[in-house]
Amino acid sequence: MNKLFLILFIISTIVYSYDTLTVVKVKDGDTYLLSNGKIVRLIGIDTPEKFKSVKLKKDVKKYNINTNIMKSMGELSSIYAQKNIEGKRVALYYGRDTIDYYGRTLAYIYIIGDSISFNARIIKDGYSKTFRKYSFNQKKSFIEYQLKAEKENKGLWKTHKKYMKSFCFD
Question: 166 by DSSP, 3-state: which?
């Protein structure tokens, strides 16, 4: 298994460019401030919004979820990220697009020493959904992780199952 991981890691360093930085602050479940001052948005995931915003308004209407419930789900996703990635040294791997519409860096984030991206981990643990709107390399795996998290009642699937069903399957 370790040889396979090493081979995949070597291949990924050739295919993707990457940087090693520290996550200074979790802004919300899928957006973090890095030690280089840049804001990174995780590729392929979408967590509920926790701040009053245009996106929160759109999501509340689109998914028919009460604003306070959506914000509480977003807060739980943020707390999960704070506990698991804030202050950690990470490697960023970039996909095809490196900057989003808002000027944030788009990346897969790996906590140094982990063999799975944090993008995948937050879905596996039930605190995010797969962002199906766009194409990305790990989409199929992310969808499988999401379905498994639902089946196993992990994270928000345990505390907010009814709302996650609406939020996740659009």
Answer: helix
Give 79-137 pLDDT, tens digit per residue: 999 999 999 999 999 988 899 999 999 999 999 999 999 999 999 999 999 999 889 99
Pairing of the two strands 105-111 and 39-42: parallel
Note if the pTM is more than 0.85: yes
Distance (Å, rounded) from C-alpha 127 to C-alpha 154? 8
Tokens standing for residue 140: 């199929």
Q: What is the pLDDT of residues 72-95, one digit of tens each?
A: 999 999 999 999 999 999 999 998
Phi, psi angles (nearest 5°) of residue 42: -70, 130
CATH assignment of 18-165, given 2.40.50.90, 3.30.930.10, 3.40.50.300, 2.60.40.10? 2.40.50.90
DSSP string, 109-158: EEETT-SS-HHHHHHHTTS-EE-TTS--TTHHHHHHHHHHHHHTT-THHH
For residue 103, CA distances in Å to 52, 113, 146 come to 20, 28, 27
